[in-house]
């Protein structure tokens, strides 16, 4: 890597982490921009206006954020995710019905 701190290893590790986070943010922005451009291109081919496409994208984000919490919450309690604290959850997914 091209990021170097002084001779303190803790400082060097922090700078490397900072550069990785910054790179992840830049790549995320590029990915989202590419997705939006692809949506705009497809919309132009079918005759949609950019304004309506952006409204549809915002509606999709709102409904997606409303749906993800009720779906993820039961899964979070049934499955042991790495890094989760507390007692282990049941490991079988989906849970079996009692006989």
Characterize the structure shown:
The structure is a single chain. The chain is mostly helical and 99 residues long. Helix content is 67%, strand content 0%. It has helices at residues 9-45, 50-78. The chain is flat and about 55 Å long. The mean pLDDT is 77.
Offer a quick outline of the entry.
The chain has 99 residues and is mostly helical.
Number of E-state strands: 0
Distance between the termini: 58 Å
Q: What characteristic shape results from the CA principal axes?
A: flat
β content, as a range? under 5%
| Proportion of residues in helical segments | 55-70%
Largest sheet descriptor? none
Rg of Cα set: 22 Å
Can you give the mean pLDDT?
77
Number of helical regions = 2
List the SSEs and their pairings:
Blueprint: H1 9-45, H2 50-78
């Amino acid at each position: 890597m091209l990021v170097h701190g002084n001779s303190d290893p803790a400082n060097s590790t922090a700078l490397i982490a900072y550069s990785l986070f910054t790179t992840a943010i830049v790549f995320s922005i590029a990915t989202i921009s590419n997705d939006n451009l692809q949506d705009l291109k497809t919309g132009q081919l079918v005759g949609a206006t950019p304004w309506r496409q952006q409204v549809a994208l915002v509606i999709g984000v709102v409904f997606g954020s409303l749906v993800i919490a009720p779906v993820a919450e039961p899964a979070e309690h049934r499955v042991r995710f790495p890094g989760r604290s507390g007692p282990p959850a049941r490991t079988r997914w989906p849970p079996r019905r009692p006989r």
